[in-house]
């Protein structure tokens, strides 16, 4: 299909390599596997694939999750009147299920490359594109994950009253104290918002400026990536851009995922910025796909351009919560709206997720 006019791509392209990249049958599968291997969110266990969330039709999924059981214990006796039934037998209790809806999001992007740029620089942009697609897609998915957590745990969310702790102060940076910074004490306080379920927390996700303070005071320790499977060491760098890492962080017995896409909250002008951290347990976020990642090439012969379009149709769900809006395919901003989410479990502390908001001496001030 030919298009009249330049489509906006200014980086070089090679028709042969583009076609081979985009139409190669293993490439999309390879991309999915690379995201799985490299994503710190997945490797930490807090994001888990769930085949039950894969859907082929519709705009949302009725998530197939059962309520946690809470059995009523019955005393047995050697007579015909024991038990809550009063008839000498156990009373059958049922396993119940909550109505939990997961919304489907549809996303994508396209790149264009032109012949003159290729001739001018003498480089193959397709190799660069292939190398960058994995961290770029992982970054986009993580941004959606963070927005989802913020909607459920943030202001107005169904877990905010029970699963959130704020130790920040509305003061200028010079008036902050250690009580406002992330510490073992604040992590223990946050974990024990879940009471006996606190042991379900295994990972903390934080902004790099929060991690910088922990490193300064010697609370952030590292395990060499050599202890892991070869090639899987990964973390986010400044701005959330995916980069290889040689070390894995630990603090207060928790895995540390550093991601600058964690929310930064600005209050009164001149006051210290506030940084949101998330504590989470294995499988707190379940995910599936309505359709596999699709990569399609096209050729605009009149402008001597090659274009590449990528689209993906993703489903994320935190068991125990439910999407409550009449519409689907929300933007990331709409995902952060606490009023859009409902609680399916009667006991919110069964959900292994806690929001902890802190200051850091390395942070800035509200504009």
Summarize the structure.
Helices cover 23% and strands 27% of the residues. It is of the alpha+beta class and 367 residues long.
Layout of SSEs?
Elements: E1 11-12, H1 15-23, H2 25-38, H3 40-43, E2 47-49, E3 60-62, E4 101-114, H4 115-121, H5 125-153, E5 164-166, H6 184-191, E6 203-206, H7 208-216, E7 221-224, E8 234-236, E9 242-244, E10 247-251, E11 254-258, E12 264-265, E13 274-280, E14 285-300, E15 305-317, E16 321-323, H8 332-335, E17 341-343, E18 353-358
Parallel strand pairs: 1-4, 2-14, 5-18, 6-11
Antiparallel strand pairs: 3-4, 4-15, 6-13, 7-10, 8-9, 10-11, 12-13, 13-18, 14-15, 16-17
Helix pairs in contact: 2-5
- Categorize the overall geometry: globular
Could you name the ranges where pLDDT drops below 50 across 5 or more consecutive residues?
A: 1-6, 9-25, 225-246
| Total beta strand runs | 18
**Total count of domains:** 1
Radius of gyration: 24 Å
Task: Please name the CATH architecture.
Answer: Alpha-Beta Complex
Which CATH top level class fits?
Alpha Beta
Mean pLDDT figure: 81
Quick one: biggest sheet? 8 strands, mixed
- H/E series: EHHHEEEHHEHEHEEEEEEEEEEHEE
Question: Which class best fits the helix and strand makeup?
Answer: alpha+beta
Termini separation comes to 49 Å
What is the strand content? 25-35%
CATH topology, by name, is phage-related protein like fold
The percent range for helix content is 10-25%
The number of helices is 8
């Amino acid at each position: 299909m030919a298009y009249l006019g330049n489509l906006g791509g200014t980086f070089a392209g090679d028709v042969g390599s583009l076609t081979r990249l985009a139409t190669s049958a293993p490439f999309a599968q390879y991309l999915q596997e690379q995201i799985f291997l490299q994503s710190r969110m997945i490797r930490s266990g807090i994001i888990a694939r769930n085949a039950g969330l894969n859907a082929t039709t519709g705009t949302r999924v009725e998530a197939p999750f059962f309520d946690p059981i809470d059995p009523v214990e019955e005393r047995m006796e050697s007579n015909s009147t024991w038990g809550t039934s009063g008839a000498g037998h156990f009373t059958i209790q049922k396993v119940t299920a909550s109505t939990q809806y997961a919304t489907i999001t549809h996303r994508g992007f396209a790149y264009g490359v032109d012949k003159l740029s290729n001739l001018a620089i003498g480089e193959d942009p397709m190799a660069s594109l292939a190398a960058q697609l994995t961290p770029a897609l992982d970054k986009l998915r993580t941004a959606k994950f963070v927005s989802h957590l913020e909607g459920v745990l943030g202001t107005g969310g169904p877990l905010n009253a029970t699963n959130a702790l704020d130790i920040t102060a509305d003061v200028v940076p010079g008036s902050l104290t250690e009580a406002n910074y992330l510490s073992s004490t604040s992590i223990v306080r946050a974990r024990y918002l879940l009471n006996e379920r606190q042991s379900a927390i295994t990972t903390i996700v934080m902004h790099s400026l929060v991690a910088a303070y922990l490193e300064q005071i010697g609370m952030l320790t590292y395990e060499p990536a050599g202890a892991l499977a070869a090639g899987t060491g990964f973390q986010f760098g400044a701005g959330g851009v995916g980069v290889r890492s040689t070390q894995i962080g630990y603090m207060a017995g928790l895995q540390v995922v550093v991601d600058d896409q964690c929310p930064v909250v600005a209050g009164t002008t001149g006051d210290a910025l506030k940084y949101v951290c998330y504590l989470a347990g294995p499988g707190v976020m379940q995910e599936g796909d309505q359709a596999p990642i699709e990569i399609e090439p096209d050729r605009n012969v009149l402008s001597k351009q090659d274009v590449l379009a990528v689209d993906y149709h993703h489903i994320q769900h935190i068991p125990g919560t439910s999407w409550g809006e009449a519409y689907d395919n929300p933007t990331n901003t709409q995902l952060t709206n606490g009023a859009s989410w409902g609680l399916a479990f009667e006991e919110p502390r069964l959900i292994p997720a806690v929001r902890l908001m802190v200051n850091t001496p390395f942070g800035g001030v509200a504009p």
